[in-house]
Specification:
By secondary structure, the protein is an alpha+beta fold. It has helices at about 30-50, 135-165, 170-175, 180-185; strands at about 5, 10-15, 50-60, 70-80, 85-95, 100-115, 125-130. It folds into two domains: about 1-130, Hotdog Thioesterase (Thiol Ester Dehydrase, Chain A, Roll), CATH 3.10.129.10; about 130-188. The chain is built from four helices and seven strands. Coenzyme A binds near residues 54, 85, 112 and 114.
Length: about 190
């Protein structure tokens, strides 16, 4: 199995936001940024894997501040963790007011991509060589995120399974509860 450094995957993609990208408040649509993220993740993962990669999942993406029409949006993608056939790509998003030369970091997103062979089956990806301390930390964070996602999904399914089976009275009780996590903790 081949191995590559994280630096071999780095992709930088920039686009100026036009009025076509605006929502009803005149700011850039969240979906426009998600689309750019996904394309950058495709290029980053596929460059690293040497295979076409597809999007398996996108972790939570928070929009802390709006992006304006006319700003230059840049997505910087790097592979931060690899499994057997999947890769975690971290995308940092920046928005720049090109007139003032002011650049701000607007989002960080983590996208899991899966490498596919010609028969559209998942295929092994190169190992990731972590050259710096920062890359080692990022790899461990990616592995931890994957483990937490798995545990979170099982726990969600276990707790939510009770909703469908609950009586109407029990559903009303749950609707009035201040915290479902609190109820779950009390009832084990
Ligand atoms: C992603 C996809 C290839 C996974 O297929 P699968 O049959 O579940 O494949 P496997 O069970 O062999 O899993 C392959 C890898 O994907 C990972 N994976 C599968 N589903 C995942 C998900 N929802 N989130 C994160 N990782 C996922 C597995 O953990 C595994 O990783 P590993 O090899 O590093 O351990 C398949 O679900 C698919 O084709 N989805 C549609 C992709 C697509 O079209 N994306 C664009 C949407 S518009």
């Amino acid at each position: 199995m081949s191995a590559k450094p994280a630096s071999a995957s780095r992709v930088e993609m920039s686009e100026v936001m036009t009025p076509n990208d605006a929502n009803f408040l005149g700011k850039v649509f969240g979906g426009r940024v998600l689309s750019m993220l996904d394309i950058a993740a495709y290029a980053t993962a596929s460059r690293f894997a040497g295979h076409v990669c597809v999007t398996a999942s996108v972790d939570r993406v928070d929009f802390h501040e709006p992006i304006e029409v006319g700003e230059l949006v840049t997505c910087v993608g790097t592979v931060t963790y690899v499994g057997r056939t999947s890769l975690e790509v971290t995308i940092e998003v920046f928005a720049e007011n090109v007139l003032k030369g002011e650049r701000r970091h607007t989002n960080t997103a983590r996208v899991t991509m899966v490498a596919m062979d010609e028969a559209l089956r998942p295929v092994e990806v190169p190992r990731l060589i972590c050259e710096t301390r920062e890359e080692k930390v990022r790899f461990l964070e990616g592995r931890l995120r994957r483990e937490i996602r798995g545990a979170h999904q099982s726990e969600f399914e276990r707790l939510a399974a009770g909703f469908a089976a609950a009586s109407d009275a029990r559903l009303d009780e749950l609707l009035a509860a201040p915290s479902l996590m609190g109820v779950a903790a009390r009832e084990g």
